[in-house]
Amino acid sequence: MDATMCSHLIILSFMLLSPIAFAPGAGVADTLGKGRNITDSETLVSANGTFTLGFFSPGVSTKRYLGIWFSVSSDAVCWVANGDRPVNGNSGALVVSSTGSLLLLDGAGQISWSTNSSGASSAEAQLLDNGNLVVRDRGSSTILWQSFDHPSNTLLSGMKLGKNMWTGAEWYLTAWSSADDPSPGAYRRVLDTSGLPELIVWHGNVRTYSAGPWNGRWFSGVPEATGYMDLVTFQVTTSPEERSYGYTAKPGAPLTRVVVTDTGMVKRLFWDAGTRTWRTFFQGPRDVCDAYGKCGAFGLCDAGAAASSFCSCLRGFSPASPSAWSLRDTSGGCRRNVKLDCANGTTTDGFLLVRGVKLPDTHNATVNMSTTVEDCMARCLASCSCLAYAAADIRGGDVRSGCVMYTDDIIDLRYVDQGQDLYLRLAKSELPPPPAPSPRRPFPTVPVVGACAAAVAVGTLPNGTKVAVKKLTQSSATNEGSEVFMREVEVMSKIRHENLARLLAYCKDGNERILVYEGYTAPEYAAQGRLLTLKCDVYSFGVVLLEIISGKRNNDNPTLISDARECWNQHRIKEDLLDAAVAQPEPEILLELERCVQIALLCVQQSPADRPSMAEVVTMLTNSSSSQTRSSNRPVFDSMAASPLREANLSTQDASGAHEDSIYLT
């Protein structure tokens, strides 16, 4: 028997004879020093009680592993010491050796795992409040070894992924082989530091999922991160010494972790203390478009375009293998239609703006954080090898900065919420014609009925048709905007009724979703060019109500409101306003119709302050008592003529066209 084996057996024998170390179920606080040990029935618990270190068996396995887990959720194991060398039975023990190493011994005294650290004889191990197990000399702040430098499948607050550029040491997550086997599995999550920082999931040597390049606020393929930025702070370090990514939970935030599962799924989880469950705030891959390189080189993936296998070629490109694409194999990507015109420092090429996308892989891109986007365009145009460019940092809001120049195939491009702009280089003949120059007016954003918000503007089509243009906004953490858009298009495109505004056109360009309806304009919008109050919708309701009663369209009868007001004041609703094609109503019905006219005229008053709210309108419509009507039975309505409508000019293209098609509001 060699000296090392003898030493380990002596340590194990001491543990078996020590009544203090082996009190059944006894904890030993948060620190383990020389001469003490942790056996199968014992644990270390961090001072704040958040984390526990001890032995466990995952799932149906009977093998024993040393690990760290959340105290409130024992199945949420966040670190494993001996994943590839389990201990059989309950004879394992964790000790501090005389050389300052942590040793995990089995019943035969064999080492199943070791920190291989060295220090003084006074070295001790401590489980910190953030879940980090550290080894250091007693009384010293110098860490000899720490579990955060050896991640398992979980990223905790305070940990980091990346690379020490001086030593070459890397920190990455490795998935378990299965839910019952914590040995290193096939998937790992690594921070790619060759271009912009980018989190990549690998299956062996194959990339399976990318979170997208870091844009200064979040990884561009994970806009869901904006939904929990109030709970965590992200840290990305790019220095000569280190390139890394991590996060820190904010004070008062719930427990959180990021896990790579044995199937290659990445999950951001938060602990719900009320239900005592982990809630998933994000998981990726989320859909088919998150499969790395789904559409190949110069392909663009749209998760809402199942009919086209989710993939299309960027403008100026065509499928490299039409036969493969016809069989829904799009991995071969796309080829350029017209060769770029660039030689000897001169070019006629231009750039196509592709909006709302996760930036492509920057593995082979050139990154310059100290320049402007304008300079980036000039540099790209001057370099014949530059195929596209984008801003590297979006923290300035509308003022982007930094430069990413792509000199290789554009790979892993997809639409995402809050996506970024990519400028794709094309030959002059492939560029779309620019829209006719004209003054532009922005969409004013107002709430609309329902759960979503929308931006609404008024305008006229080239044929003179007055329209209301609604641009749906999409939640950062859900797919709500896309679902609402598709549902509204599907329903409204099939409905034809004289009392409903018709859907005239729709357009989808990346995350921009626009619906064009026949519209009615409140006076304050016509005067100011923007929606100032929520009462604009009330005005539109009043117009529709008068149309229903009179059987006349406001578009065909521009004096409908003034005519209705005059009929009311002269008590001639029955004679001059009611739809002549409808049989004369009974007296009781006539009273109800007169009340509806009164309510409609209240809704279309010149001043928004004089109009009722929609809640008041509902009350007046559903309550037959005249006392519930907001004004007297014969109110005196303001007779100010409506201001001339300052309408926008709209030009439309085929709404069913490619993603470059759009509706221009001028």
Describe the structure.
This protein has 666 residues and is α+β, with helices and mostly antiparallel strands. It has five domains: 149 residues, Agglutinin, subunit A (Orthogonal Prism), CATH 2.90.10; 136 residues, Agglutinin, subunit A (Orthogonal Prism), CATH 2.90.10; 141 residues, no CATH class; 74 residues, Phosphorylase Kinase, domain 1 (2-Layer Sandwich), CATH 3.30.200.20; 106 residues, Orthogonal Bundle (Transferase(Phosphotransferase), domain 1). 16% of the residues lie in helices and 33% in strands. Strands 26-25-35-31-36-33-34-32 form an eight-stranded mixed sheet, with helices on one face. Strands 37, 38, 39, 40, 41, 42 and 43 form a seven-stranded mixed sheet that branches. It is globular. 37% of the residues are buried.
Q: What's the total number of strands?
A: 43
Number of helices: 10
Into which percent range does the helicity of residues fall?
A: 10-25%
How many distinct folded domains?
5
Please report which band the strand proportion falls in: under 5%, 5-15%, 15-25%, 25-35%, 35-45% or over 45%.
25-35%
What is the residue-averaged pLDDT? Answer: 80
CATH architectural name of the largest domain: Orthogonal Prism
Shape by Cα distribution: globular
Low-confidence stretches: 1-27, 443-453, 475-480, 526-532, 631-666
Structural class estimated from helices and strands = alpha+beta
In CATH terms, the superfamily of the largest domain is: Bulb-type lectin domain
For the largest beta sheet, what order do the strands appear in spatially?
Answer: 26-25-35-31-36-33-34-32
